[in-house]
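Cross-check.
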Amino acid sequence: MISPVTNRGDAIGLLELLLPTAPGEDVLDEVGEAAHILAYVVIANGRFTDLYTWGKRSRPPTLAAEIQYQLLPPSLSCEAAQFTLCGNLEPSEDLSGDSFDY
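Predicted model, tokenized:
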């Protein structure tokens, strides 16, 4: 099962679990709550380590790309009842010709 890891409308990531059987409604609720708690853990500890950032990348960025990445908003997506807003940086590992757009 896959559960969104969110905090106050900001999408932090996804929590993927492999379960031996199909989950019931109670398990779905508990995993959803655990994913929400995980968002707080990632946000609180994100400024003390770069492990979460490395987990989102497929290859190491250049120094210039890392500096540019640090200038972006902390979350590239936000969701509320009235709207969903997403940003995209392409390509995220290289500098020169990078494009950021909502």
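The chain has a mean pLDDT of 81. The CA atoms of residues 90 and 98 lie 6 Å apart. Passed to J.P. for a second look.
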